[in-house]
Amino acid sequence: MGKNTEINFVGQPIFVQILKLIDKWLFVSLVKEKKSDHYYKAFRSWDQLIIMLFRILSKCDSMAETCEGLKALVGKLNHPGLQRAPAKSTAGDGLRNRDSSFFEALYYKLVEQYFDITAEEAAFIYKKRRQIELLFKKMKQNFQLHYFNGENENAFRTQVLCTLIAQLLLTVIQKMANVKKAFSTVVN
Predict the structure, then answer these.
(1) Quick check: is 3 in a domain?
(2) In the chain, which stretches have pLDDT less than 70?
(3) Could you say which of 70, 111, 142, 148 would form a disulfide bridge with 187 (CB–CB 3.0 to 4.6 Å)?
C-alpha cells in the first residue's frame, strides 16, 4: 500500500495540526500591533493561546486542571511551541490581565483568512444577536464553557474568544478533511 498524499494531516499530533492553521506571521504581526506581549517576559500571547486551546479542546474544567494536564505532556510541549507548562498563577494572570482585544483581532483575521469575508463583514455578522445566541449554544454543547477561569470581564472575554478560535479552527479542519460528520463528532 502506498502512502496517502491527499491527506495533509497524517503523522502529526492533532493539536499541532490545529495550531498550524494559524499563520505565524499573522500572529506575530498582531502581537506587535496590539502590544499584547508588552508586559510579559515569560508568558507570551502564543503561550496563552496554546494553553487556552488546550483547555478548550481537552475539556478541562479549571486552570489548575489545564496546567496539570500540560505538565503531564512534559516531553511533548515543544511541538506546539511551549518551553514548559506554566504555573496556574501565571496562566491565570495572563487570562486576567492580557487585553482580550488581541484575541478578538485574531479571531476576525482567522475568519477573513478561511471564510473569504472582510473584517467589516465579520463584525456585522458578529453583531447579529440571534446568530450569536445560536453560536453560544453550539459552543456550550461542544466545549467546556460552563466554567470560567477568571473573575473579571477581560478573563471572560479572552476565554470566550479562545473558544471561538477553537471552534473556527475545528470547522476549518472539518472542511479541509472533507468530513461529512456532525460538528460534535469532530470535536470529540
Answers:
(1) no
(2) 1-12, 74-81, 129-131, 144-149, 183-184, 186-188
(3) 142
